Amino acid sequence: MAAGSFLINRSMLAADYVTWAAVSAAWHESLWIPGSVAAAAAAALGAAYFPRSSPVAAPLRPRVDHGLFLIHGLALAFWLCLGHAVGLVPIEITAARQATAGALALQDVIVGLAGLATLTSIGFCLGAAVRHWVIAPAVGLLAFAVMGLPNTSLLTPIGLILPVRQFVTTPRFELNPPTTIFAVVASTAICLLAASQASWARSRGSVRSNGRLLLTWLAAAAALTAIAFAWRPELYVVDRPVARTCQQVQDTEVCLHAANAPAMARTVDVVGRLRDAGLAPVLRRVTDFAVSDHDKPRPGEAFVELNPGPLDRRFVAATIPDQVAFLVSEAMTLRACSQPGRSIEGRDIAAVLQGRILQLAGFAQLANTVAPAQPPSAAQKLATMNAEQLIEFVQINQQLIRSCLLSPASLP
Question: How far apart are CA 279 and CA 276, in angstroms?
């Protein structure tokens, strides 16, 4: 388990920097594959530990049988949780050295441990009930499939019951505390249900009262599931107060979340280059979306969402400077081009403008990526302007650029 958790999260060690938000989320979000494997392994151990020739194959008293499966399942869960914690130690050490804001969130740790205990107990008790190795791959595949369901908005509440919540990690948000409490309660109920199911499967026909215990916990689990779907709370809430850090680049203010402070110097450098390449008249503010108190950028403002990676080098913007350059230039030239009534020609002209600004700012590869396949012939002169000419052009036509209404008539 330790090796699995480390391998799933080892990419963080190659990131530009590590944030505590990412490390905290790894306690539960990284369990999609290791958790499924843990459930399958627990099922295999349950089937091997209680074979058909085992003494407990004969009916036992309900309390003895139920407690036996529960204790064994939780003991196995303890060792798997310990392995998961050990596997995350390297990235936690890295975060302690690099992170500039925040700390390891206790609620993420609780959700991760409760979720792993749930998966392990379910797997172990199903294995003990079926007593055949074939249950192991079936449990693993089922766990993997179910943990992917929160991806769909209709089934998001499943994230309240199982650990993987399918949420994009950002320093702005933290787990909603009530959902953490709910996850612990649901985990307890499901573990008891799993033990009751195994007990009933091994003693049915002889020990009638086991069925009542199973129905009790089955009703509890069903009630919690119904509550989760009726409640449908926000799984994450804003982590207040929102820590920020700001710097001024001539007339442009750059504000990032404090957790992204390691990227500030590179962001400031890119913003300065974009200003000098043509955006000086229109670029007034660059805001990290993690610290913004509004969902849509204001006039002259560009949102950036920084991903310290590591990202595949084949991505359009795989590095922090590329991300900033792409997002800022796109916001200042193409933001309005998706609105109704905008022409394809107007969008192509705006894309030529974005490409030329990126080229002059030193991002030739990005410029080639955003350039239209067949640029309008009227925009040829735009693609050959120098920085001074571009600044003058943007100054004169900033309203047309902001509205994505550039046309051949507005070009020199």
Answer: 7
Burial (0-12, 13-18, 19+ Cβ within 10 Å), 409:
exposed
Beta sheet of 252-257, edge-to-edge order: 244-249, 252-257, 285-288, 301-304
Which residues 6+ apart lie within 8 Å of 198 measured at CB?
46, 65, 69, 125, 126, 128, 129
Residue 57 has pLDDT above 60, yes or no: no
pTM > 0.90: no
Provide the CB-side half-sphere exposure for 81 (13 A, CA): 20
pLDDT per residue over 262-293, tens digit each?
999 999 999 999 999 989 999 999 999 989 88
Identify whether the C-beta of residue 176 lies closer than 8 Å to the C-beta of residue 231.
no
Instruction: Provide the 3-class DSSP secondary structure of residue 342.
Output: coil
DSSP assignment letter at 155: G
Q: Of 362, 396, 324, give the one whose Cα is nearest residue 16.
A: 324
The residue length of the chain stands at 412
Q: Between 20-29 and 89-98, two packed helices, what is the crossing angle to 10 degrees?
A: 160
Spatial separation of the C-alpha atoms in residues 117 and 128, rounded to whole Å: 16
Cβ neighbours for 231, distance < 8 A, ≥ 6 positions apart = 157, 160, 182
